[in-house]
Design a protein that fits this description.
Blueprint: H1 22-44, E1 48-52, E2 55-57, E3 61-64, E4 67-70, E5 76-79, E6 83-86, E7 96-103, E8 132-137, E9 147-155, E10 158-161, E11 177-182, E12 191-196, E13 200-211, E14 222-229, E15 243-247, E16 253-265, E17 275-277, H2 281-286, E18 290-298
Antiparallel strand pairs: 1-4, 2-3, 3-6, 4-5, 7-8, 7-9, 9-10, 11-18, 12-13, 13-16, 14-18, 15-16, 16-17
């Protein structure tokens, strides 16, 4: 079973005129490879087949096409030439399910080059970058053992492809997108929030449409917003704490509303301008001192239509 990488990262520095050994260069390459693997695993959650590596099950062997995969430690499994792998040998007369595993091949496992190997052809070269392939019982397989790229059922010497097998596909890590922002302090364009009635107009408070288009959301996120004041602390307006809420959420904006009742009624004769009643003058005069701060979280999810019966993304 593959063990986790020991954390032995270091930074190599060289001085002018310093003699370098082959071991120094190998250490440098090993450090860079380990950093890349940590990046693949932590940032991209890279595990599974990324490209190619399809398997054709024939009568006596399995043929693996070139491709790229990542193991559970984020290391690249690169196959440059097709490979032919014989089927597993078993004495069991009952049906057994096997996985064809691709796992990382250490540099020390490659053969050493000699002068006679310099002119070897690419098709037969044992020095090309390639994973190690082996068969393993499904019941004994663990993700640390490698990436399963095919599966067969062996029963009484007969081998057939396993139709229920779904190989893991490499995909980017789905993270929640989080963005924050605020309207311009002192320049927030507040508008009246009114509710028209039959013979009156009920002013519920003030509202402002907040633009979030620069956040890059692709679907309406979950918004959180609150009211803040940019006024001088020495000139505190006497304003009742308003009740605030969010509405009309979309991927590029939302409406923030502060409830401050204001009733405008017509005179008894039905003519003339509206007459204001119960007005919160302090807030209306100082409303430009108030602005809105917000935070939004977009949660990624897969619709059920993109999943098969086993919950594996198609």
């Amino acid at each position: 079973m593959s063990k986790p990488d020991p954390v032995e990262l270091q930074r190599l520095t060289y001085q002018a005129g310093q003699g370098l050994r082959s071991a120094d260069r190998r250490d440098q390459v090993a450090i860079e490879a380990q950093l890349r693997a940590w990046h693949n695993r932590a940032k991209h959650n890279a595990y599974g087949v990324s490209e190619g590596m399809t398997v054709e099950v024939k009568a006596t062997e399995a043929v693996i096409a070139p491709g790229l995969a990542y193991d559970v430690r984020g290391r690249e499994l690169i196959l440059q030439k097709p490979r032919r792998i014989g089927f597993p040998k078993t004495d069991s007369v009952t049906a057994t399910t096997w996985f064809l595993i691709a796992r990382y091949k250490q540099t020390s496992e490659y053969p050493k080059r000699t002068e006679e190997d310099c002119n070897c052809s690419g098709a037969a070269s044992p020095f090309l970058e390639t994973p190690e392939f082996l068969w393993k019982l499904k019941s004994e397989w663990h993700p640390q053992d490698g990436v399963p790229i095919a599966s067969v059922i062996v029963e009484d010497g007969d081998v057939e492809n396993n139709p229920a097998f779904v190989r893991p596909r490499e995909h980017g890590l789905n993270r929640r997108r989080i963005a924050t922002g605020a309207t311009l302090a002192g320049s927030t364009e507040w508008q009246a929030w009114d509710l028209p009635l039959v013979v009156a107009r009920l002013s519920l408070g003030v509202q402002v449409k907040v633009d979030t288009s620069q956040s890059g959301f692709t679907r309406p996120p979950c918004y959180f917003a609150w009211l803040e004041r940019a006024a001088d602390p020495l000139t505190v307006p006497r304003v009742l704490a308003p009740f605030c809420h969010i509405s009309e959420e979309s991927f590029d904006s939302f409406m923030f509303r502060a409830w401050l009742p204001l009733i405008r009624t017509l005179p008894p004769t039905g003519q003339g301008t509206f007459r204001k009643v119960n007005t919160n003058f302090a807030f209306l005069q100082a409303r430009r001192q108030f602005y809105v701060s917000w935070i939004a979280i977009e949660d990624y999810f897969l619709p059920l239509s993109t999943l098969d019966v086993k919950g594996v993304s198609k």
